[in-house]
Amino acid sequence: MVKRACCAVLMILMTVIFSAGVAMAKEPAAPEVSLQEAVDRALELSKSLKMAELEKDKASEQRGDAQKEVKYTPTGMVNPEIESAYATLLQSELNYQIKSKSYSALQEDIQQQVVDKYSTVLSAREARGNAQAAYKKAEWDKRMSQLKLQVGILSQLDMTGVNTTFEQKQSALVQAEQDLGKAYVEFNALTGFWPEDRPQLVTDISYEPINVTSFTAEVNRAIDNNPDVWAALQNVTIERQDLRMALQPYDIEKIEIEMAELSADEAEDELEKQLILLYHDIVSLEGGIKAAEQGISAAEEALEAAQLKVDIGMGTEGDLLQAEANLKSAESTLVGLKASHSAAMAAYFNLTSRDVLPAETPQV
Is the dihedral of CA 113, 117, 120, 122 positive or negative? Predict the structure, then answer.
């Protein structure tokens, strides 16, 4: 009996210790994280990137093996085995170059994702602040309306409308909290934090309007650096090289060259379309940002006027709360637009093979 009792106590202690350890491990954390730190974490944690690196290493080994089978570059009529070995080397070289470019492109893609998720959290955080300000104003309206109802200067119908508005603002605040939580879950999954963690993002992503002097040059730059388009163009070169050898009948090789050229043209056209659409999205966002900045200026002036009225006894707390809510709404709109702009610019820079990460500005 004593032995059983000791075992039972031991099991309880182990359960308590284990539960405490799990609780400690999952305790929400709020470390300060810059954009660059977030990128470094995402690159380090990415299993896809590790897989891409292994595929590149494998392609390198295959290229080396193929190189051993080729003693010289075949010209004219040569042994079919020599032609086959040379064709294998060309394909192995192309495969290695594709894997190398894909590895580099994946690094840029991950950085682009981090910019997107980082910006989304900043935007969602500002949206929650906007919802909090609107809720605070609705709460004040409800409290004042209840007093008016009690003294008979407000109808029950009007009170119902006030209650409806209050409930709407309350629901909007709950939704804003949920949106912020979802934004953190996606950011945390990418950067290796627990889902419930709330890292403090300390970088304000600077806003710089897009500057394009030659869109033709931008398209060419994107084509030259896109792994898919590059692979399609290289495949055309290989098919033309195959035409010089007797691997397949001449007519079939000609058809395969034409197919490869059409595939390359289609890849170029698709990339150009993506770039043009993205450019127009960015320009549209910049127009919205300019309007939002003007809206903030107007809201700031209105808040100053409301504060002045309160100071001289001609305004109410409700007027001041409304002005504060209007300013918060304008600020939230601007932050949201800038977040979308930073994500779009990261995508544009990625397509044109530029540094994906925007300039960082520490938050004040």
Answer: negative
Q: What are the tokens at 7?
A: 């075992």
CA–chain centroid gap for 350, Å, is 12
Which range of residues forms the domain containing residue 299?
32-362
Enumerate residues 6+ apart whose C-beta is below 8 A from 177.
128, 131
C-alpha distance from residue 52 to each of 100, 187, 256 (Å): 8, 22, 29
In 131-143, which positions are buried (b, 16+ CB within 10 angstroms) versus exposed (e)?
bbbbbbbbebbbe
Assess if residue 6 is contained within a domain. no
Write out the chain's pLDDT in tens, 364 residues: 444 544 444 454 444 444 444 444 556 788 999 999 999 999 999 999 999 999 999 999 998 888 887 766 655 555 667 667 777 887 888 888 888 988 998 999 999 999 999 999 999 999 999 999 999 999 999 999 999 999 999 999 999 999 999 999 999 999 999 999 999 999 999 999 999 999 999 998 889 999 988 888 998 888 888 877 877 777 766 666 655 555 555 567 677 777 777 877 888 888 899 999 999 999 999 999 999 999 999 999 999 999 999 999 999 999 999 999 999 999 999 999 999 999 999 999 999 988 888 765 555 4
Biggest CA pair distance of the chain: 106
Q: Please answer whether residues 327 and 296 qualify as being in contact, where contact means their C-beta atoms are separated by less than 8 angstroms.
A: yes
Of 56, 190, 63, 168, residue with least CA distance to 119: 190
pTM above 0.85, yes or no: no
Burial class from Cβ neighbours inside 10 Å (0-12, 13-18, 19+) for residue 71 reads: exposed
- Asked if residue 23 belongs to a domain, the reply is no
Those residues whose C-beta lies under 8 Å from the C-beta of residue 45, and which sit 6 or more positions away, are 191, 192
Parallel, antiparallel or unpaired: strands 200-201 and 32-33: parallel
Whether residue 24 is contained in a domain is answered as no
CATH number of domain containing 286: 1.20.1600.10
Domain total of the chain: 1
Burial (Cβ within 10 Å: 0-12, 13-18, ≥19) of residue 96: buried
Domain membership flag for residue 22: no
Residue 362, SS3 per DSSP: strand
